[in-house]
Design brief:
CATH architecture of the largest domain: Alpha-Beta Barrel
Shape: globular
Number of strands: 16
CATH topology of the largest domain: D-amino Acid Aminotransferase, Chain A, domain 2
Number of domains: 2
Mean pLDDT: 97
CATH class of the largest domain: Alpha Beta
CATH superfamily of the largest domain: D-amino Acid Aminotransferase, subunit A, domain 2
Bound molecules: 4'-deoxy-4'-aminopyridoxal-5'-phosphate
Radius of gyration: 19 Å
Low-confidence stretches: none
Order of helices and strands: EEHEEHHEEHEHEEEEHEHEEEHE
Structural class: alpha+beta
Number of helices: 8
Largest sheet: 9 strands, mixed
Amino acid sequence: MGLLVYLNGKMVPEEEAKISIFDHAVLYGDGVFEGLRSYNGKIFKLDEHLERLYISAKAIMLKIPLEFSEMRKAVIETVKVNNLKDSYIRIVVTRGIGDLGLDPTICKNQSVFIIASKLQLYSESFYEKGLEIVTVPTRRNLCESLNPAIKSLNYLNNILAKIEAMNCGAMEGLMLNNEGYISECTGENVFIIKKKKVFTPPVYAGTLPGITREVVIEIVKNMGLEVKEMLLTRYDLYSCDECFITGTAAEIMPVTCVDKRIIGEGKQGPITKKIRESFRRLVDTEGVPVYE
Ligand code: PMP
């Protein structure tokens, strides 16, 4: 694609953007990351994503070698040098080069790289007809083990769930926490609508505090509807009127079938449609401008 990638202070051609095989991100998945988007030359919720990145790093005691303002500038610059208007942006911070042991304190040279590119997770037709999801056997990481609130490079928990969902012919997997409550999908938060009330699992159920989740909660409140963070069971999903999942990459995706139970009328519901329209208006108007 001929992209320029930010790597440790320099913009380098993608073929030359390399990190060491001794980096603990490669050896152990030790590091943190973020996924953002720009819409029409404006980066949506840039500061919110950066705040989450720095909190994730703090939680795993990883020192990011850039100040917040430097990181902010680097993200904007990466979109700019690639002349992108609509893009998906990935920020990765690695633990750095160590030896073959686990000890992170000896790791030097944390790497920061930023990729700005294109990404379409689902084809357009799915946003109308909705997605089929299935509950997967792999449970979401315990908050007391590797807290799902940390956006770490260690995504095997989610990847195993994705494999299980795909093995069942579904494109997304619904993950439960160890108590059997809904946590989230492999890369998206979950919402349901029942009798015009909106529900989503609380972060303590084992979910990432999604930026899109937060935006949707605001949208729903502004629509004058009640939104509640509440522990949900699979029964709540089977019996709801509408369901959708949210994430930076997937945006707002209607879910129309859960474990072979058809949700609502089997197509995007009316409230989901309105939320998606508000979301579209927001991303079109808000954001940090890249080209000024
Ligand atoms: N849950 C998980 C596990 C994720 O990886 C993501 C982001 N890809 C989300 C939820 C959604 O978060 P956001 O809206 O901030 O992208």
